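Students often ask why we bother encoding 3D structure as a string. The short answer is that it lets us treat folding as translation between two languages. Here is a chain of 310 residues written in the first language.
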Amino acid sequence: MGQSHTNLCFEIAKLVELGRPFPQVLRILANSPRRKQAKCFQRALTTLQNTGDLGKALQESEQFYPFEIELCKLGNHNGRLALFWNWIANYQNKQGNHTWTLFFCVIYPLLLLHFSLLLPTLLYWGLTALLTYIEKVLLGLLLLDALLALLMLISYVGGKLGHRMPLYMVLSVPLLRRFVFKYQLLQTMSVFQALYGGGMPLINAWQTVAAMPSHPKLANLCMRVSQRLQQQQKPLLTDAIAGEKALPDSLHQFIAVGESSRQLDRILLKAKDVLEREANMALYLFVIVTSCVFTLVVAGILISKLTTWM
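And here it is in the second language, the structure alphabet:
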């Protein structure tokens, strides 16, 4: 859904905060002449007027994720609809920021590498004649990466691709899937904390996050945990995640402490901060290491070529 979805969530949150009833919010969205999804919101408004079911109306619009619909239902039931819409808007905004952090951390080492190779090409016209066939192929691939990065940046500024395209590119790099896993685990636990803290039963909250689109490894993990919760007479998340080595030890400890003290929703807020800090540190360390390695490789290539020219 991209950046437009984030903007939509912020707009709804602002309207709800102003005290507008939700049918009126849908009417405003449906009557907006610049909005491409106006017909979708008109359909949702009709469903809400006929059935009075907010969840069914949002689902009919086809503009919201299942967990967002569940949060809205909780907010409507608890009288905290504005609070939940603000949470959804901030969550989507942070998700976009995480995606672009991954994107630029991938692009930066590539730009460093290919610009370091382009510089001597511009200074010494005819350098390609001194390169071997393999070196020409590598240089061509680097230039292609640079062109792709430039096009994606232009598309982002124009607001045509939002933040989905960079995420797909990051997922296609096997080395970076571990960072994607860390960030999507953070997003999963954030949504689970909001659902469970909002009053949804433990099993239902976990089933909702298990249905979220995510990293394949994380999706399989969530499904296994969901099955274990359903098999337990007294559902405990601590027992359900036991043996899942893909989860950080700190998360196991936080959940164990939270369930034993009956303050799981509050403890998960602290766990979310720790997960975000660990993911950022791992990603920044990756950028520093790869930048240093690329710099040394390029320096070696340049030194060898300079000795050849001299």
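Translate back mentally: Residues 2-64 form one domain. Keep this in mind for the problem set.
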